[in-house]
Amino acid sequence: QGPSAPGSFRGTKRGGRLLLSWAAASDNSGLVDGYVVYANGAELRALGSGARSVDIGAFKVSDKRRFQVAARDAAGNLGARTHQLVIVPRLRGITLAKAKAQLIARGLKLGKINRVRSSSVPAGRIVKAGRSGVVPTGVKVTLTVSLGGSGTSSSGSTGGSGSGGRGSTGGTSA
């Protein structure tokens, strides 16, 4: 029988690097011999029994890999893998349809959609995502979508101070 899955598996961005960390696994024999880090189901790195973190390399929002860790006992039995972690992609400025497709491709879910007026992001495009960094797969990501600028005048921005034609304040707050 293999060891338990490592606990508290999480990822962080530190100094521009992607770091994965976890709590120790346990084994019925009492001896965890090491840890195996996986990317997209393939072994990425084998580490010693004292390892509780690993530097994966430069943190890039374009990195589409899914990461997991499992413990190995002295007999060579592999334990259960942790949940998967992924990096939330950069979504600002793309359409809602493209953002949804990117989230699904990474194993994430589309959460609540908020709408706001934005003079810097065209209508129908993402202003911001409610999450960033490294998250477990299956997490819902709230998106804020631009309604465009606050007026239709061609004479420049209204500055967002007030009464642009329809009385809308531009969405809801989280």
List keywords for this structure.
1 helix; mainly beta; elongated; 174 residues
Account of the 3D structure:
- With 174 residues, this protein is mainly beta.
- Helices cover 6% and strands 39% of the residues.
- The protein has one helix and eleven strands.
- The strands form four sheets. The chain has a three-stranded antiparallel sheet with strand order 1-2-5, with no helix packed on it. Strands 4-3-6 form a three-stranded antiparallel sheet, with no helix packed on it. The protein has a three-stranded mixed sheet with strand order 8-11-9.
- Strand 1 (7-14) and strand 2 form a beta hairpin.
- The N and C termini lie far apart (46 Å).
Summarize the structure.
This protein has 174 residues and is mostly beta strands. 6% of the residues lie in helices and 39% in strands.
Strand content: 35-45%
Helix content: under 10%
Gyration radius (Cα, Å) is: 22 Å
| Largest sheet features | 3 strands, antiparallel
Q: How would you write the strand order of the largest sheet?
A: 1-2-5
Shape: elongated
Query: Which structural class matches the secondary elements?
Result: mainly beta
Separation of termini? 46 Å
Low-confidence stretches: 152-174
SSE string, helices as H and strands as E: EEEEEEEHEEEE
